[in-house]
Amino acid sequence: QTKRSYIDGRHPEAELLKEAAELLRAGELVAFPTETVYGLGANALDASACVKIFEAKGRPQDNPLIVHVCNRAMADNLVANWTPEAELCVQHFWPGPLTLVMPKTSKVPEVVTAGLDNVAIRMPSHPVALRLIEETGLPIAAPSANLSGKPSPTSGSHVWRDMKGKIPLILDAGACLVGVESTVLDVSGGIPTILRPGGISREQLEAVLGEVRVDTPSETQAPKAPGMKYRHYAPRGEMILMIGSSERIIQRMGHEIQKGHARLKKVGVLCSLESAPFLHNQLPELLFVLGSKNRPEEVASNLFEGLRLCDERGIDLILAEGVEEGGLGTAIMNRLQKAAGKRVLYM
Ligand code: TXA
Ligand code: MG
């Protein structure tokens, strides 16, 4: 039996936080909103509570969890060594969508880091997340609150669909502001390296840190963030990502819609606000506007809703328009590319 409690995103009700905190202290799971996506939380210091996370999500055991804290002292307990780069990141980007990978202390259970020597830590800025951690008085391990392999949940309804019957409580504060997950940055030593692009861009990091690298896994080298090797955000239907000039994309999409219909496929289109009027008359079964080309924040916040909607509507073929790389666009394209698998068309 899962309880879904609607909570005020700006001024969370004290009784609801107390109830959630009690569950967490008792070793239970609670789903809660952050500014990026919803998290599935457990007491990070309790190994058996954290094991429940992997069970509820169907998550592979070798994929480590991010630990959420509400202040520096809580993080100090978990981190063996802060580099100058880590300190700068804390000053400039916490609380916010930046996760720091640093050497762990023995207080962090093995299951949290999947046996790695480093732990991933972030201080979220969402009032519900911050107040919940404060009220619990414990660091909270939390991956995204979706079933493993599905798009991350950016609303309470997404969490409800994936987690109902599996966890005791969902705190529902409506839609998440950012909509893509945090940037995972290795600041354990040497040149800071982005392991997963996300809510804080490389450009923003470089303005503070100087040179920042990006981990680019290859056929022969596994990604340093174990989670990046899995096919994430995979919708049920086949998906084609199109990158390039809007005119060519619109033309090609029109063609693919007709081809899909000839094969009796239900076709879904995920596109920019600017392209939508030109695709409307091709009569796709779903036309989902991700947002304006000039507002990547808008696209980021709608992205996972769009992917999930395609599944809900039984779409067989998804045609997605890419966005420009750089800034938040890099994180958006990373998620779109993962959802599309290898089916990317450059035009
Ligand atoms: O925005 C977010 O980061 C959300 C919210 C809930 O905070 N959380 C999230 O967690 O996206 P999850 O578990 O879905 O993704 C965590 C990513 C995975 O790719 C994982 O492999 C990587 O971070 N990661 C976690 N701990 C790590 C570690 N010690 N070393 C390297 N990568 C790590
Ligand atoms: Mg996830």
From TrEMBL:
The record places domain YrdC-like at: 14-200
For the ligand (L-threonine), the binding residues are 36, 68, 122, 142, 182
**Which terms are listed as keywords in the entry?**
ATP-binding, Cytoplasm, Nucleotide-binding, Nucleotidyltransferase, Transferase, tRNA processing
Do the record's keywords include Nucleotidyltransferase?
A: yes
What PROSITE patterns would the database entry show?
YRDC
Does the entry feature the keyword ATP-binding, yes or no?
Answer: yes
List the InterPro entries hit by this protein, alphabetically.
Answer: DHBP_synth_RibB-like_a/b_dom (IPR017945), Sua5-like_dom (IPR006070), Sua5/YwlC_C (IPR038385), Sua5_C (IPR005145), T(6)A37_SUA5 (IPR010923), TC-AMP_synthase_SUA5 (IPR050156)
Record EC number: 2.7.7.87
Name the Gene Ontology biological process terms: regulation of translational fidelity; tRNA processing
Q: Where in the cell is it found?
A: Cytoplasm
Q: Which GO terms describe its molecular function?
A: ATP binding; double-stranded RNA binding; L-threonylcarbamoyladenylate synthase; tRNA binding
Offer one Pfam family short name for this entry: Sua5_C
Question: What do the Gene Ontology cellular component annotations say?
Answer: cytoplasm
Enumerate the residues binding ATP: 59, 63, 144, 152, 196, 233
Q: Which family, according to the similarity comment?
A: Belongs to the SUA5 family.
* Role played: Required for the formation of a threonylcarbamoyl group on adenosine at position 37 (t(6)A37) in tRNAs that read codons beginning with adenine.
* Record's protein name: Threonylcarbamoyl-AMP synthase
Look up and give the organism this protein is from: Desulfosporosinus fructosivorans
